[in-house]
């Protein structure tokens, strides 16, 4: 944009998309453009006119004469040529087609597109198998009763809360999906092996697990001394003494996300 002195930044998106579609994709072992259209992307100016005729154009008058001749040839071809091309597009190998070269070109392009798409699909399947193989060896499977630690997202964690919560593996589905729970409740969603770490020793007996589904935020709030991270927060500039404070009016204590370092009388 600086080189061409262009102020419309969205005009550069088409060039970014061009480079992305032209680049080699490691998964499909070819560019996305080649996988879609069966041929390499052609970049630059091209012409359908013979190179000998174009080389003979020197002046503007030569160009006008050349274009007039092309237009006359197109008009003389008439409707028959148009119908012939349409027939080729409908069935490239039709016996009624008179232009065998065009038929062969269309057929070869269709076969190239089909082959590239099939090869791309095979490459993606192979890549998925390799990723699954590496994941299995990097994250060995857990067993029922093992204690695991689950990372607590920042949005669900107050500043004084731990970064991880300990759970026990309650059940395993399809050999790769784990149901987790502790004495505060059971998580409703299933976890994969790469979403938690296995503790070296068992810390939570299975008989202490409460089989009541609760979200990770709810369990973190119950485990927190300050009530955990809440949706409500205030931005009071006073001491939160009146019901103008959102937290006090909701009968909850202010947390670490409220009003920065301002003094507060609504804390535990």
What's this model, at a glance?
The chain is of the alpha+beta class and 268 residues long. It has helices at residues 13-22, 32-37, 51-55, 60-90, 100-138, 216-223, 246-249; strands spanning 147-151, 164-173, 177-182, 185-186, 197-198. It contains 7 helices and 5 strands, in the order αααααβββββαα.
Write the layout of secondary structure elements.
Elements: H1 13-22, H2 32-37, H3 51-55, H4 60-90, H5 100-138, E1 147-151, E2 164-173, E3 177-182, E4 185-186, E5 197-198, H6 216-223, H7 246-249
Biggest sheet, spatial arrangement of strands:
4-3-2-1-5
Please work out how many helical segments DSSP would assign. 7
Mean pLDDT: 78
Low-pLDDT residue intervals, each spanning 5 or more residues: 78-89
In which range does the helix fraction lie? 25-40%
Shape: elongated
Q: Sketch the major β-sheet.
A: 5 strands, antiparallel
Beta-strand residue fraction? 5-15%
Number of strands: 5
How far apart the termini lie comes to: 56 Å
Whole-number radius of gyration? 34 Å
Structural class estimated from helices and strands: alpha+beta
Give the helices and strands as they follow along the chain: HHHHHEEEEEHH
